[in-house]
Design goal:
Lipocalin; eight-stranded antiparallel barrel; globular
Length: 157
């Protein structure tokens, strides 16, 4: 086998193996219920610049967060994305938000928020810790602690 065709074969093989591992990692047993946190939640975070947020936890272990952009007059930070996992201690996860200056519209850094939640039926309680970094990755603030309370958003009429 020529060197170029061998490299192409190994690249394709690696891609197929990676895709297979991703599918296995995202799969759950047939009929297994999703983790109790899966769904959309109306969150109260009293310590946040804007205390009301929406969180959506997906069965694949990703989480999205959104809140009105009005909470911080100097910075735009209304969305975050991250990952979560169920552990014996509860739901653990981390969100990352990109920060921008409202006046200049320039990237000013990122916030990383770690959280732990305990789900009980259609409510949860938890804690979070946020650390903020400048564009070069140096920590500029935190950790900042916060409490979390969530109520599941349901399709009730």
């Amino acid at each position: 086998m020529h060197l170029a065709s061998r490299a192409a074969f190994l690249t394709r093989l690696g891609t197929l193996l990676t895709a297979g591992l991703v599918l296995v990692a995202c799969a759950r047993a047939p009929g297994a219920p999703p983790a109790p946190v899966v769904g959309t939640w109306l969150m109260q975070i009293p310590e946040a610049p804007f205390p009301v947020h929406l969180f959506t936890f997906h069965a694949d272990g990703t989480v999205l967060q959104s809140n009105p952009d009005a909470g911080d007059p100097g910075s735009s930070d209304s969305n975050a994305m991250g990952a979560w996992q169920a552990t014996p201690q509860g739901i653990r996860g981390r969100l990352v938000e990109v920060l921008a200056d409202r006046g200049t519209r320039r990237f000013t850094g990122r916030g990383e928020i770690s959280f732990v939640l305990t789900v009980t039926d259609d409510t949860f309680q938890g804690t979070a810790s946020a650390v903020f970094y400048d564009p070069q990755g140096a920590q500029v603030r935190g950790p900042v602690q916060a409490s979390l309370q969530g109520q599941r958003v349901s399709p009730r009429p």
